[in-house]
Amino acid sequence: MPLLYIDLIEGRTPAQVRALLDAVHEAVVEAFGVPPRDRYQVVRTHPAHEIVAWDTGLGITRSAQQVIVHMVSRRRTRALKEKFYELLALSLSERCGIDPADLIVSITENGDEDWSFGHGRAQFLTGELT
């Protein structure tokens, strides 16, 4: 049940944002095997001057179409994370025309005690979720 924050430079249409969210979700489901209904996404749009994402010495040139994905999730293996990065870049490229160079991903891991999905309970700890 990853929680995804997706930061974008403003200017996309609602249909473009929805296609992007669908592409991200597709990669999450395929890479991590989460149920399709486990979908928690928050989009934040910014004026171009509010996102600074330099190339870190990798020779990457970014455009105004850049996408920054921050995932908060239970622990995943290195192999699953690498699979996710690849699938996400491919999905965004194929479904939304986003250059893989415009994708930045960061994952923050947490544990079962760090989640509550409502009613003031930690459902992973109470056994309501596994």
Characterization of the model:
InterPro entries: Tauto_MSAD, Tautomerase/MIF_sf. The chain is of the alpha/beta class. The protein has one domain: 2-Layer Sandwich (Macrophage Migration Inhibitory Factor). Helices cover 32% and strands 23% of the residues. It has three helices and four strands. A four-stranded mixed sheet has the order 2-1-3-4, with no helix packed on it. Helix 1 links the parallel strand 1 and strand 2.
Secondary structure category: alpha/beta
For the secondary structure, the number of strands is: 4
Strand content: 15-25%
Structural Rg: 16 Å
Write the layout of secondary structure elements.
Layout: E1 3-9, H1 14-32, E2 40-46, E3 67-74, H2 78-96, E4 103-110, H3 123-126
Helix pairs in contact: 1-2
Summary keywords:
single chain; alpha/beta; Macrophage Migration Inhibitory Factor; 4-stranded mixed sheet; 3 helices; 4 strands; 32% helix; 23% strand; globular
Quick take:
The chain has helices at 14-32, 78-96, 123-126, and strands at 3-9, 40-46, 67-74, 103-110. By secondary structure, the chain is an alpha/beta fold. It has one domain (3-126): Macrophage Migration Inhibitory Factor, CATH 3.30.429.
